Amino acid sequence: MPALSERQETILALIIHEYIDSAEPVGSKTLVEHFGLGVSPATVRSEMVSLTDNGLLRQPHTSAGRVPSEEGYRYFVRRLLR
Known about the structure:
Order of helices and strands: HHHEEH
Distance between the termini: 17 Å
Strand order of the largest sheet: 1-2
Low-confidence stretches: none
Number of strands: 2
């Protein structure tokens, strides 16, 4: 399992919760607006790229937000669901 920063873990957890609620890809702007993360959408996008590179998220379309991968769900259950 990759080592994630606290911010990356928070973003991953929020994406999983949003995706479960909406069944739609989750974008950086949505996360910033809904959860007041205190960072810009560009910062969130950068973290989403890292999470995608680590195999925890997928991007179904070029301009779409991200969705959790199977590995992302596993990480969430093992490390974040407490």
